[in-house]
């Protein structure tokens, strides 16, 4: 039953154009790509070599304020990834002996990567399911960036704030 204040349109009433959500507007965030995120974040990737020491990596992580580094060879081919979490686990296993160890002994060798054209939502799901926070971005065989769960969340929050502002402007006029 319609509310008592509702009156159905009558012949001769002027129709007002209304705005509604569309499948395109509702799916916009799910089609946002990693490339768009990298356009805003930048493509800087801190890399180390497999024979570098954990001590060197710890200093880099501290100085750069990052949580992981990509391990590459001299041609920048990705060999692995090393995160703070990897280092902390090794420190628990080898107290007082971790810092002189080589990166190749701690790094994760089976690195999951994403591509610039990948959907941000799909990548976030993969990161959540795999329980890791850092993912190198590869364009073919070239390392073109690094994203984190935090990057994706911050990007999406900014999108939501913008969408809310647009809706408010539409409502207010």
From TrEMBL:
Q: Known InterPro entries for this protein?
A: CBS_dom, CBS_dom_sf, CBSX3_CBS_dom, Diverse_CBS-Domain
Q: What is its EC number?
A: 5.3.1.13
Q: Name one GO molecular function term.
A: arabinose-5-phosphate isomerase activity
Annotated region Disordered: the residues are 1-26
What highest taxon heads this organism's lineage? Bacteria
Give the matching PROSITE patterns: CBS (PS51371)
Identify this protein by name: Arabinose 5-phosphate isomerase KdsD
Q: Which gene encodes it?
A: kdsD_2
């Amino acid at each position: 039953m319609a509310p008592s204040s509702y009156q159905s349109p009558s012949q001769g009433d002027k129709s007002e154009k209304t705005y509604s959500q569309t499948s395109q507007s509702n799916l916009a965030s799910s089609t946002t790509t990693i490339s768009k995120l990298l356009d805003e974040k930048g493509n800087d990737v801190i890399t180390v070599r497999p024979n570098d020491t954990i001590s060197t990596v710890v200093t880099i992580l501290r100085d750069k304020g990052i949580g992981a580094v990509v391990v590459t060879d001299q041609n920048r081919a990705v060999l692995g990834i090393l995160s703070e979490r990897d280092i902390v686990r090794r420190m628990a296993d080898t107290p007082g002996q971790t810092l002189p160890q080589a990166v190749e002994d701690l790094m994760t060798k089976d690195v999951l990567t994403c591509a610039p054209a990948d959907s941000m939502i799909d990548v976030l799901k993969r990161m959540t399911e795999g329980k890791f926070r850092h993912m190198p971005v590869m364009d073919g065989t070239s390392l073109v960036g690094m994203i984190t769960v935090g990057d994706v969340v911050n990007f999406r929050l900014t999108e939501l704030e913008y969408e809310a502002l647009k809706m408010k402007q539409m409502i207010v006029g």
